[in-house]
Amino acid sequence: MASESALLSELIGLVYDAALDPTLWPRALEQTCRFVGGSSGNLFWHDAATEESAVLRLFNDEPHYTKLYFEKYIPLNPCFPAAAFCDAGHVYGSTDLVPFDEMVETRFYEEWMKPQGIIDLVAANLEKGATSSSIIAVRMHESDGLVDTDNRRRLGLIVPHFQRAVSIGRLFDQSKSAQAVLTQTLDNVSAAVFLVGPNGRLVFTNAPGRAVLDEAALLTERNGLLFAVAPDAQRALREACLAAENGNAAMDGGGPIPLATLQGGWFANVLPLTSGNRQRTVALHSAVAAVFVRRTSPASPPPLEALAKMYKLTASEIRVIDAVMKVSGVKALAEALGLTQATVKTHLHNVFRKTGTARQSELVKLIAGFEPPARE
Questions:
Q1: b/e 221-251 (16+ beta carbons within 10 angstroms → b)
Q2: Is 376 helix (H, G, I), strand (E, B) or coil?
Q3: Is 356 helix (H, G, I), strand (E, B) or coil?
Q4: Hey, which CATH number is domain 4-170, 3.40.50.150, 3.40.50.2000, 3.30.450.80, 1.10.3720.10?
Q5: What is the pLDDT of residues 219-246, one digit of tens each?
Q6: Residue 214 burial (10 A CB sphere; 0-12, 13-18, 19+)
Q7: CB-count burial class (<10 Å; 0-12, 13-18, 19+) for 208
Q8: Is the pLDDT assigned to residue 164 strictly greater than 50?
Q9: Taking residues 13-26, what's their average pLDDT?
Q10: Quick one: angle between helices 315-324 and 330-337, nearest 10?
Q11: What is the pTM (predicted TM-score) of this model?
């Protein structure tokens, strides 16, 4: 039987290859489910503000229930909007957000999860915007049991690779290899991205990357080559790019390279483009590696997320507050959330206690006028 490290290495390579060949995503998700310990999985995005969602890739989903989810059950999913507030890369189970004994009382569980035998999921936000997130989720069926520590650990091992693969999938369109298309796609990626050829030669830089080079605090361009300003970072960057050029690099380029530690920290990730389906990218763009540069500090959260963190609200309490902004009265809230009126009253009382309010109208005013504390 193959070791965990061997299975992980194979899966990482498959995930990166799927970014360039979308036909491989079902296989990559299948391998992910087997590695993590679940029965079905998908890549999807969800917007907590509009309650809109769409599946990007899936494995072992029941088409009938997938259709029902997007047509009827999105507003009833008790994990949202709280799940959208989790930091990118943080692994969570649905029972981390909503206790199982509370989950089974919802219409979402009774009408959508239970008929499919789904009892839990383990997931992570790959990218996180103000109100929307792209998410990798592995569902646990009755035979799998509830999410445990090992399920979380295993998903945590591959989440960073899914995050980079999602970005890579937008960078390179194999059916459109024109430089103009590459430029437009790269410039719409928030991270600074540098495509480098042999010896660290800069092949392409997107708009955020050009801004980084202009500032010259983290990275610079010297005689057409990419250099890190800090000596230690430059050594690590050079070694990672050289390993990619020679085909000796790890699937993830060896992990993040610290570029600076001020103001939240800046890190570079080097993705080798010289193995698997990524070899075609080398031929198209004369690149041996893609260098991603991101800052670790998150953007200011939207009011509902900031309020939830300030008052330590549970996922169910966050749902109630979100619903209060749309409908009024316990009966209407219960119908909108797929909960009993007694459960809604319990959550409302807890919200009132935590926020120092006494009625729904006061809660609406609190949310409408809420301003997150100034960041230090």
A1: beeeebbbebeebbebbbebbbbbbeeebeb
A2: coil
A3: coil
A4: 3.30.450.80
A5: 999 999 999 999 999 999 999 988 888 8
A6: exposed
A7: middle
A8: yes
A9: 85
A10: 120
A11: 0.73
